[in-house]
Amino acid sequence: MRSSDVLRGDGASNSGSDVLVVGGGIIGLVTAWRAAQRGLRTAVVDPDPGGGAARVAAGMLAAVTELHYGEETLLGLNLASAERYPAFVAELAEATGPGHDVGHRACGTLAVALDADDRAHLRELHALQTRCGLTSEWLSGRECRRLEPMLAPGVRGGLRVDGDHQVDPRRLAAALLLACERAGVVFHRALAERLTVVRDRARGAVLTGGDEVTADQVVLAAGSLSGRLAGVPADVLPPVRPVKGQVLRLRVPPAYAPFLSRTVRAVVRGSHVYLVPRENGELVVGATSEELGWDTTVTAGGVYELLRDAHELVPGLTELPLTETRAGLRPASPDNAPLLGPTALPGLHLATGHYRNGVLLTPVTGDVMAEVLTTGALPDEARPFTPRRFSSARLEQPA
Ligand code: GLY
């Protein structure tokens, strides 16, 4: 008997799969890979698997430098995932074989201040990190420039965080796609238009063109689109919204290398800017944060602001070839944390709302979702992220 039959408790199965994952971005793919590894017959529906926000993301694994007030619970999950990254990447390399390196680079991060306001902001962040037991070191401007000689002479100080690394999200998505294929995951290259619900239980999805795929359990992992899949009951629909991020890619010619040796970031006039140098010479500059609905236009203003702020940080950057401009949509939830696990609709699970941390949270999301799909229970580490925290039933409970 398959584990999904056990979960249903009615002994029945259908002609589809054990698990249908709606959405083939990195979160959907890692869920499918981990489910298939546990022996579940798994399918993914996505017109372009391996795409989504990972095609735009810079891939910072920045649990410490992206810490925000009020997000200490999320910090625990972020750290758990960061800790798993080396073993996760090694397992993925074993599953995919040579030639599919995901660009995991233990390079560390330097967050710097350009003026007195930035410096005060960074000092606050340092105090919060210290209170949370995190490791970061305050450096003078001169010490920052000694580490990264391309930094602007005006840098006033910075935070050295040796534990915040990077991975290349595009290569990660490609490797996960291959790992899924090798693990026997079936891909339906179409859009899921509607969730099907039979006798108050999620049973699959109707695809563009009218085909229907069925499964014992459905995982909605479609990034910001998760919030608008037809057929999902209103009280279960995840409250995720798109937050646009514009990102640039530059190339560091070999003669300029090493241009930067680690991720460098700053808050310039209230906007975050980060520069992520890859070993292959790509330099990613991100990112705007815009609440503009489904718009993914790359704008002159967005590119201008990113280049202006990045130039203040590292003036020599304007010499580099600009190779790509792109915009993507972060799936944001009301508390900036993901929604993981079962919903109030039997058979329907969520793995969405990862907002700024989708790449970082990929390993832990895969583990959590595999556990949920095989046992029906959310592991302790994921309990604070149950989708039920947003359901009306929960909100109506007395305090
Ligand atoms: N975590 C980086 C970003 O969301 O822009």
The CATH topology of the largest domain: FAD/NAD(P)-binding domain
CATH architecture of the largest domain: 3-Layer(bba) Sandwich
Let me know the number of strands. Answer: 18
**Gyration radius, to the nearest Å?**
21 Å
Q: What is the 3D form?
A: globular
Q: Note the main sheet.
A: 8 strands, mixed
Averaged pLDDT, please? Answer: 93
Q: What letter string, H or E per element, gives the SSE order?
A: HEHEEHEHEHEEHEEEEEEEEHEEEHH
Q: Point out poorly predicted stretches.
A: 1-14, 393-399
Number of helices: 9
| Proportion of beta-strand residues | 25-35%
Tally of distinct domains: 2
Kindly report the oligomeric state of this protein: single chain
CATH superfamily of the largest domain: FAD/NAD(P)-binding domain
Report the helical percentage.
25-40%
Characterize the structure shown.
It is a single chain. With 399 residues, the protein is an alpha/beta fold. The chain folds into 2 domains: 186 residues, FAD/NAD(P)-binding domain; 148 residues, D-Amino Acid Oxidase, Chain A, domain 2, CATH 3.30.9.10. It has 9 helices and 18 strands. The strands form 3 sheets. Strands 1, 2, 8, 9, 10, 11, 17 and 18 form an 8-stranded mixed β-sheet that branches. Strands 5-6-4-13-14-15-12-16 form an 8-stranded mixed β-sheet, sandwiched between helices. A two-stranded antiparallel ribbon has the order 3-7. A hairpin with a 4-residue loop joins strand 10 and strand 11. The protein is globular and about 65 Å long. The site of glycine (GLY) has 7 residues, from loops.
